[in-house]
Amino acid sequence: MFLLVTILCSIVLWTHCLHYTDVQPQQDFDVEQFAGEWYRVGMAYENPAFIKYKNRLLISKGLLVATENGSANLSMWTMTGPKKCLPSFYEYEKTDVPGLFTYFSQRHKIIKDITMVETNYTEYGVVLKYKKMDKEYTQVALYGRTPTLRPELEDKFRKYALSLGFSAESIVIPAILDPCPIPEPKNTTEATD
Question: I need a labelling partner for 147 at 20 to 30 A (CA). Which of 15, 124, 133, 155 fits?
């Protein structure tokens, strides 16, 4: 009986992980159209520390700059304490697949992938970070050109996160805008995640 349960659990786990690796970027993704200012207006992250403090998450603002070679640089500030803003800079390297990027996470000391799942370029974008599906590393985020999006887009994001296996408690749509400014773009990797 123990062996049967172990086999069934392994199959479920393998199927669950396979589901994430099947996520493909939006067809014909164009990084130049995606460039510009974005607000992170939603996030799903299974990490227990995130879930515990998710109600403190603010809407953050970032600037994505496309590079000449098809890669992208993302600059963001995040409120880390009373009147304290922390800058973060990410260099997303293009791959052979448009809409699929990689970067080295300074925080976790691993290479992560970034998948541009869906966007209409002018209103919203859905981005999956790290398709290997690890609770410590994998996130899915909803971005908007404005700090608030239509309710149907927020609902679509929630349903998408749930379909990937994120729990309802791991999904947050913050209501308060982070007051930090956007840092100037940098050419060096100083990412904190």
Answer: 133
